[in-house]
Structures are given as C-alpha cells and as structure tokens.
Amino acid sequence: MEFLYPNALWFLFLLAIPIIIHLFHFRRHKTLYFSSLKFIQFVEQENKSAKKLRNLLVLIARILALTFLILAFAQPTFTDSKAKNTVGKNVVAIYIDNSFSMSAKGTEGELLSEAREMARRIINNAPLETGILLNTNKLDGIEQRIVSKMEAIEYLDKISYTPLVRKTDEVINWQKNFLEKENNEQQRIGKQQFVVLSDFQKNTFSSKQLKADEKNSYFPIQLVPQKIENVTIDSVWFSNPFHKKGDPNELFVQLRNFSDKDAANLELHLEIGKSKRDMFIDVPANKKVQTSFQFTENEFGIKTGKLTINDKQLFWDDDFYFSYNVAKKSNVLIINGKDASADVQKVFNVEPFYETSSISEFEFSKDNLNTANLLVLNGLNEIPSGLISEIVEFSNDGGSVFVLPGTNIQKSDYSNLLGELNLPSINSIANSGLKINKIQYKDPFFKGVFEKENENLNVPSIVKAYNVSQMRQSTAFTLIELKNGEPLLLRSNQNAYLFLSSLQADFSNFSSNALFPTILLRAGELSIRAYPLFSIIGKESKIPVFEEIQNDNPLKLESNTIEFIPLIQKIGNRSYLSISGMEAVEKLKPGNYSIVNDGIIGNLALNFDRSESNNSLMEKTEIIEAFTSQGIKNCNFSTIQDGQSLSPIAIDEPAKYWRILLLLSLLFILFEIALLKFWK
C-alpha cells in the first residue's frame, strides 16, 4: 500500500480526542434524588452492562469514522505485484503530437487542445510521486528532463504548433534512451509507461525502429478529427524558368485533394507584386489538378508571389509563397583556343541582354570569372590543370560551362575536366553515321524553344564527331543524338554542356545553322544564377549566396515581422545559407524574405513542408499490429472520437479507495448518531 498524501497520516493523533471524551464525558457523576436506595441499586444493576456496551460502541464508531476520514485524505493506493518488485521512480512518458495535422477540428476543439486536456487528466490522476516526462515534436533540452506533476501541468499550457514532424518510433526511442541514461547516471527508474497522443497519420507513422519490450506499458491514444478532408497547393513552377522582360510566361499550380469528396468551385487567388488574379477550380476526390496563369513580365527586379486557396478544413497549407528575379543582363565569358570560332561571340552580341567578354586562353585569370554566369570554352585543344581547377570551382559555385572542343584535343586534359563536370570522357573521332537523328524536345533544355516537334527540321551537316566513353545516364543527358547512337550535345546535372564536334569547317557546318544560336542562347538563359523559386522551412538544403558577404554585417533574412540570422557555410569561394535546424523552425514562418547583407542582395520564399497535408489516418488494427509485431507485449490502444472529456483514461493507475473510505467514515458517523439518539 502507498499513500498519495502520506503527510495526512499525522492527523491520526486526533484519535486521542474521542478517547479523552469517552474517559471523561461518560464518567461524569449526576445526583439523583430517590426516596429509596433500593431503587437506585436496582436501576444501576440493570443498566450497567448496557451502558458500557453503548459507550464502547460510540467510542469505536467515533474512532473508525475519524480514522477512515484521515485515510481518505491520505488516499491509499495499491499497485500490482510487478510494480511492487520494481525499484526506483515510476515515470509516465507522455508524447503530444503538436504537428500541423493536429490543428484539425475534433468534437471539443482542435485535436491539439484535446490532446493537452487528455494529458492534463492523465497527469492529475497519476500518483503524487510519479515523475512525468512530457515531450512534443521539439525533443529539445527543455523537454529532456523528468518533472513533477505541477511542472508538467504548467508546461502543457505552453505547447503550440510546430512544423517539425516526428516518426512515432523516433519519439519513443528518444524517450527510452533518455530514461536509460537517467537510470544509469542520475536516479533509479522504476516502472515506465509510454503514452502517445497523436492522430497517427499514415505518412508520418513508423514503428520499424521500436525495440522489443515485455516489461513496460504502451498507450497509443488516437485523436480523430470530425472530418478527414484537405485540399492543398502542392507545388508551383514556371513553363520557362528564365524570366525576361517583355517575354510571356506561364505559372503552373498543382492542387491536391486528400479527401473522399470532390472540392467544387474552389477559389484560387494569385498575387505577384501589385497584380492580382483569381480563378475557380474543381478538384476531384483524391486527385491532383494542374492549372496555370499566363502573364508577361513588364519590369525588371525581384518579384514576390503568393497563391491562396479557401479551404474549409486545415488552414496551415492554404498559402504558397514563391519569388523570382527578372534579370537585366547575363554575363558571358568566352575563352578562345587555337580552333575558336568567331561565330560564338557573334551569337551573344546579337542579344543586348548578354554582356560578353572574350579572351584568349593565355589571358585568363581567376578574376575573369567573378561576374560570369556562363563560361564558354571555344576551340581549346589543351586545358592546363590550373584552368581546370578554376573551371571546376566556378561550376561548383553555380556557374554554367559550355565546352566546344578543338580539332586536335589532348584527351587526358579533357577527361580530367569532363569528369569533374559529370560528363563522359571523349574517345576517338567518328566519321560515319553522323547525321542528326533525334532532338530531345521534351528535355527541360528545349522547353519553349520550339513551337512543336518537327521531324523534318533543317539540321546541320556533321562530318566528324567525337565518341564518348563511360557514359552515365544518371549524370549526363543526351540533348541531340546522331544516327550512330552517339550523342552530339550533352548536358550534365551540374548545368555543364558538351558539344561533341568542332565548329571548324572540316568537322561541321553547325555554326551556320539556326540550331547553333538557339542552343547557345538557351544555355545563356539557363545560366542565370537565381535563388530557388521556393524553399521548405526545416529541410536540409544549401542555398547559394551569389553576392560576396561583407563580414562587418551578418547576413539576415528579413520580412515585415521577422528578422533571422541563418547559419552560413563556406564551401570554396561560395557561401551557402541554411534554413534547417531547430532555431530556423521555431523562428521562421512562411512568407517572402529579403536576403540582406550590405543592402538587399536577393529574395527567398519559404513554405512549410506539405508532408502532413495528406491527413489519412492509421486504423486501430494497424496501430496495434505495428506495436505488437515489434515485440511490445503491453499495448493498450484507445480512440478519442467524441471528445476527451467523455473518454476514459486508459493508462495503468494504482487502485484508489478514498471514496470508499469517505463513505465508511460517513456510515460510522451516522451509526454514532443513531446510538446516541435511540439507545437511551
């Protein structure tokens, strides 16, 4: 037996009061006047034993009434035999899922509110000396401690939503590892009970990493919303990632309906700068729908955009932010070798958008690359190792490289460079089967270049071409293919391009064909260094900073209401900012942010992760099977559908008898009153 409030047992000293009353009150002498002493002796002999019995029963009734009343306030509890044999502090580990999916409406408010109140009831009903380990998706140092019941209740009121999403097994393992460490280093831990309060979404639930446990008890408690419906903006993209003043463009929007009901006449609102557009769209049940807005850029500079849908259920994923830049110019650097073609510079000179610098291979210095977006190697036969290292660093920093080889190349030089650019090595020269056979119109490189696919396109004549070796389809993609199956133009996943012929007349007449300027100008367009259209808060990503950071002023992300200093990592000459980590998750909110150092140097659009937009839930049998299949023997599942206040508390509790003791105390008080009133 244990007592929740053992200090109340000190009041047992009050049992001396009825004993004192009995000793003095019932022995008081009274003077009675009778004419005959024989009558007095007769009465005393007749009632002496009855009075003693009545007084004794009154004393016992008073002692028992007071004893049961004191024990009721001390609240004795009885635990099972297993708990008696467990040495150490008993702990209830409570996890409250505070991700955005818990903002769905339940019977008694949002699911997170119901989870907090359910946790409050569990904590209030736990024995006084029980330790509470209360955790959310944060799992930070503040939550890594065992607290008292009062401290846990106070922390409950501070729990709010977070974009962090945790797997179920990740949280439980975190709790168990902490308790194991606490047991080894700080204090003995006895019986452990793990309570999981969550909606148990299918796409965030996992039990694969749980370890077998036959000793402790687990209580998954599922909070179910009234309606499992949600429509979200899944993603956005432009038909042409290159934004140029005066050119038409098309913004595509993908919406997704995660419910079993059609979303009819859903309003979609677009804001780009001061421009506003609206449309109404139907999204069938459990389907994706794409729509688009067409517009033409009329101004230079950074553009910020926001898409909004009017959804009736979850609201955290109804807004989607994006931003882009309409550049005034692009810088192109051409390094000319022995077999350089003058047509390369002529192509870029036609377009005022490009600022072109042309130097010989002997005039090159590292400073030439400081402002370049596209580097063109024009007819080089030899590439010194120093130049190779500078080109590779330029590419790693986000620059684009277009390789136009000479007629008599040093294969080892090219192999070293192309390998670093994720392009295949150049092998021998072929002179047969060199007619252009296929253009990959569907590749993003050619998107928007041709009005339609044309099999009868006037293609240039290729006399000689280089074969390639060690072609890896995962890093290099064919844009133009020859009849012999070899590529003529390749691009790598590092935005590097390789033309596998020379522009000299004895190799081809490619430079005189309309396809030649089309390819160069397209490469120039795609070489514009731009910040991502949007980024996800909390996801690990290295976002390049294209301007040099002034050390005197820290780089900041600023919106109308938030100022945040991100983590900066230096790789080579390029700096990268990060929006992952706990601090970023806690401080950053969705929106458009200016990247500020010595003035505004760019813009970043941030959104929450959409992984929880799919709010389909695990079934009861699936959850129980997931726990038991991992070797967890004591799993007690319960569901909260009609509100937490109507749901019984599921966790193991010691048997409590204070109500019975209070009733017994009342019964003995009534028994005492009856004795005094009716037994004369």
Question: In words, what does this structure look like?
Answer:
- By secondary structure, the chain is of the alpha/beta class.
- The chain has five domains: 2-79 and 659-678, no CATH class; 81-227 and 615-653, von Willebrand factor, type A domain (Rossmann fold); 231-326, Immunoglobulin-like (Sandwich); 330-526, Class I glutamine amidotransferase (GATase) domain (Rossmann fold); 535-607.
- The chain contains 13 helices and 36 strands.
- An eight-stranded mixed sheet has the order 17-16-18-19-25-24-23-21, sandwiched between helices.
- Strand 28 (556-558) and strand 29 (563-564) form a beta hairpin.
> How much helix, percentage-wise, in residues?
25-40%
Number of helices: 13
- Cα shape: elongated
Strand order of the largest sheet: 17-16-18-19-25-24-23-21
What descriptors fit this protein?
single chain; Rossmann fold; 8-stranded mixed sheet; 13 helices; elongated
Question: How is the topology of this model organized?
Answer:
Layout: E1 2-3, H1 16-25, H2 37-74, E2 76-78, H3 81-84, E3 89-96, E4 105-106, E5 109-110, H4 111-125, E6 131-135, H5 149-156, H6 168-185, E7 189-198, E8 213-223, E9 231-238, E10 248-257, E11 263-272, E12 275-283, E13 288-296, E14 301-309, E15 319-326, E16 330-336, H7 343-350, E17 354-360, E18 374-380, H8 385-396, E19 400-405, H9 411-420, E20 425-430, E21 436-439, E22 465-469, E23 476-482, E24 487-492, E25 496-499, H10 515-526, E26 535-536, E27 543-545, E28 556-558, E29 563-564, E30 567-571, E31 574-578, H11 582-587, E32 591-597, E33 599-607, H12 620-628, E34 632-635, E35 638-640, E36 655-656, H13 658-678
Parallel strand pairs: 3-6, 3-7, 7-8, 8-34, 8-35, 16-17, 16-18, 18-19, 19-25, 26-33
Antiparallel strand pairs: 1-2, 2-36, 4-5, 9-10, 10-13, 11-12, 11-14, 14-15, 20-22, 21-23, 23-24, 24-25, 27-31, 28-29, 28-32, 30-31, 32-33
